[in-house]
Amino acid sequence: MKEESKKELRELKVAISIVVVFVLLATIIVSIYSRVDIANAFQITFTGILTAGTGGVLGNVFYAVMIFFTLGITFYIFEKVIVLLSQIGTGGILMRANLSSIKDHYIVCGAGRVGVNAAEKLKKAGKKVVVIENDCPQAEFLKNRGYIVIEGNCMNEDVLEKAHIRRAKGILACTGEDNINVFVVLTARDLNPKIKIATRVNDQKTMGEFQRAGADIIVAPEVTGGYELANKIIGNK
Fold first, then answer.
1. Which of 18, 24, 124, 184 is most buried by its number of CB atoms within 10 A?
2. What HEC string does 117-155 produce?
3. pTM for the model
4. Is the separation of the CB atoms in 178 and 184 below 8 Å?
5. Are strands 217-219 and 196-200 parallel, antiparallel or unpaired?
6. Minimum mean pLDDT among 44-48, 49-53, 132-136, 162-166: which range?
7. What angle do CA 207, 213, 217 make, to 5 degrees?
8. Mean pLDDT across the stretch 222-235?
9. CATH architecture for the domain at 102-234
């Protein structure tokens, strides 16, 4: 969530808290003045606000103040909700809803060229995909293309948990840094021993580290790309 949205959400929580405290104080005053229990006092208070104090036990002035204050805060809350929704966007709300119930999905760590191509291939195959990317512009780009995206560092265990790694079917470590990828492999294997792990390796000398870390599939794009070029030019399939 962006800083602006976090600020609006904090202000919204404060406004709601003020309303709750104000109504609670008014209820206590009514309870003491009318010598009734809290439940009845709340009913009297609520009725007084709705009817502008008509027949209220404390008089119209008391309820007029309550109505004025409550309406002011209510409009403020409504404004904050509208601003917050516009900042998060309908897509963001739907993304959170989809993410909360997702399972048997594939997590793509790193949305560079390799990661994006992997995500697109999975999506075309009808698989559910969650992308983890710490670059905000790239994350927004993928969100606009309909992907569920978590902005954060894939080396962070909390971020992987947010992607529901324990319910995931597979994870792909696609960053351009071997130290990041091997850490993702280790963490993923620890959090979900049954998950299928595919990783990109940039330096062939580190392949042993990835095998020991628990990777099921290890791909070196430069090597496979070279093999593909050679196969194409000599006519091999």
1. 184
2. HHHHHHHHCCCCEEEEECCHHHHHHHHHCCCEEEECCCC
3. 0.61
4. no
5. parallel
6. 49-53
7. 60
8. 77
9. 3-Layer(aba) Sandwich (3.40)
